[in-house]
Amino acid sequence: LAQGMEPMGKPAVEFRDIDIFYGKFAAVRKFSLAIGKGSFVTLLGPSGCGKTTILRSIAGLVDISSGQISIGGKRVDDIPIYKRNIGLVFQNYALFPHKNVFDNVAFGLKYRNVPKAEIVRRVGKALEMVRLPGSEKKLPSQLSGGQQQRIALARAIVFEPEVLLLDEPLSALDANMREDMRVEIKKIQKETGITAIFVTHDQEEALSMSDRIVVMNAGVVEQIGTPGEVYDRPATAFVANFLGKANMLPGTVSAMDGAMVTIALATGHTVRAASPKSLAPGSAVTVVVRPQKLTVCAAAIANRLAGRIVSTSYLGGNAVYEIDIGGNTPVRANTLIDGQPLREGEPVDVGFDPKGCVLLDAQGVRIE
Ligand code: ATP
Q1: Is residue 215 in contact with ligand 1, taking CB distance under 6 Å?
Q2: Are 264 and 251 in contact (CB under 8 A)?
Q3: Are 325 and 350 in contact (CB under 8 A)?
Q4: Is residue 213 assigned to a domain?
Q5: What's the CA gap between 178 and 172, in Å, rounded?
Q6: Are 224 and 3 in contact (CB under 8 A)?
Q7: Which parts form a coiled-coil structure per UniProt (predicted)?
């Protein structure tokens, strides 16, 4: 499977063949990943896929069963938590409720015996960074959820850790706040140049914030790549479905000419698609087309599939259509529209560029 870009130079964090068991249950299997210094990597996957377990293993909060973890080129799997230089931000803020903002943020510095004047300077700077300057005397209960999460972030970065671990830090915030915080966390991470590992099950968060995304499913890596790579070139059926919407059109190869394959779809339509390799006639394949790549119109277009609109969602400037083309499930098209959207029951032609799709084999793995 695609591993995405490898970082240049010595990785800031490296996992080699990690297995993690809870009793007999393998929560993570054969996990390998190298993270470049200063990059923002997201572990993305559904609940229970093992992403939190991996994050906790870096901090030393869970033991790995086999493999190696290195931070800055040094193995840490035998180093206790308090000696690992790591900043942590959790979903539920985890501030000390009876300590004021200053004492909350200063915690890691006091613990490291930093002189008092230096602590005051660094706490002030961290609070400026999270845009809450002058809030030193406030108690957590006097702050909003978003502000508390900024304080938690200030506390995690104030001692300049080698790695910043963020475990679903935005999931307790309301939708608007969440979007602002996405931008802000990303900005602070770039400004400080800190290496960050972020855990989320939210694909939008992953796509908008990450340099690279690790898509996980049931304890194993499905794909590692840039947001563009995992979205446009999903390596497996799981990735195609987990990141955004995907139309999955099963069919059989009927002919191959040059780099183009002709496929007889289960719906009875025939389509052409660009294929990275030669495929034998009769092979089972699935054509994966994003809703944005489908054209819905009456004019002659490539890969024309006749169908009928079954539902219309007008979103102002664009519309999402579900179109019955004779398969088990309707295809979904998301198109820009000028004027009125098409209505349910209307016959339409749907088309897509042969180069605007991905082919999966019978096992659901992308054909390379
Ligand atoms: P979520 O988003 O729900 O937190 P996750 O992808 O972070 O999910 P993990 O918390 O890493 O998943 O859990 C991975 C698997 O290991 C799950 O099946 C979970 O039930 C199991 N697991 C986690 N912690 C323990 C534990 N302490 N003891 C036993 N099983 C555990």
Answers
A1: no
A2: yes
A3: yes
A4: yes
A5: 9
A6: yes
A7: none
Residues pairing with 297 in the sheet: 349
List the residue whose alpha carbon is closest to atom 26 of ligand 1.
Answer: 22
Query: Per the structure, how many domains does the chain have?
Result: 2
Report whether 334 contacts 318 (CB < 8 A): yes
* Residues 327, 219 share a domain: no
Q: Which atom number of ligand 1 is nearest to the Cα of residue 55?
A: 11
Give residue 2's pLDDT band: very low, low, confident or very high (50, 70, 90): very low
Which of 177, 210, 241 is where one domain is finished?
241
| Overall pTM > 0.90 | no
Give the pLDDT band of residue 292 (cuts 50, 70, 90).
Answer: confident
Tell me: do 237 and 252 sit in the same domain. no
ipTM of the prediction = 0.94
Considering 226, 241, 256, which residue would you say is the last residue of a domain? 241
Coil vs helix vs strand at 12: coil
Mean pLDDT of the chain: 89
Q: Ligand 1 centre from 52 Cα, in Å?
A: 7
Distances, alpha carbon 231 to alpha carbons 6, 192, 241, in Å: 19, 28, 10
- Asked if residue 252 and residue 230 are part of one domain, the reply reads no
Whole domain around residue 94: which residue ranges? 13-241
- Mean pLDDT of all residues in 39-68: 93
Mutation test residue for ligand 1: of 18, 19, 42, 47, the one with most atoms within 8 Å of CB: 47
Beta bridge partners of 265: 251
